[in-house]
Design goal:
single chain; globular
């Protein structure tokens, strides 16, 4: 069971990172404006549509204005939910979540972030693509 939680946490990090990371040449000069812009685009419900880890595809990530997120994924027909916090620093997404009784943290880089699509790159260079879910 612990390995499932570790896998789920890894998926959460990848998903969150894909939303917040931007290419270096796209970073605005005003860091506060960049942070506010990223936060505004990030808030809402996103679905993982492409990931190196196939189990992550279909997962739902909800980013809230208060710096909290919820990651929900189905594994072998069972739904798992992880709550955590996020912050944006220097155009990167920093996430922390309690998985299986252990606090796990990660940092992802935005490769693309629009109103409808997000691409995140993790430390290993793996890309996760998310699309905004319409209400």
């Amino acid at each position: 069971m612990k390995s499932r939680f570790a896998l789920m946490l890894a998926i959460v990090v990848v998903a969150v990172t894909s939303h917040l990371t931007r290419a270096d040449d796209q970073k605005p000069k005003d860091k506060d404006a960049s942070k506010d812009n990223i936060s505004a685009k990030l808030e809402g419900t996103w679905e993982v549509v492409k990931a190196t880890d196939e189990v992550a595809v279909g997962a739902i990530v909800v980013f809230k204005k208060d710096g909290k997120f919820t990651f929900t994924v189905k594994i072998d027909g069972q739904e798992f939910k992880v709550d955590g916090t996020y912050k944006i620093e220097e155009g990167k997404l920093h996430t922390t979540a309690n998985v299986g009784g252990q606090e796990e943290s990660d940092v992802d880089t935005f490769k693309k972030l629009t109103d409808d699509e997000m691409e995140l790159e993790n430390k290993e260079g793996k890309i996760t693509v998310l699309k905004r879910k319409k209400a």
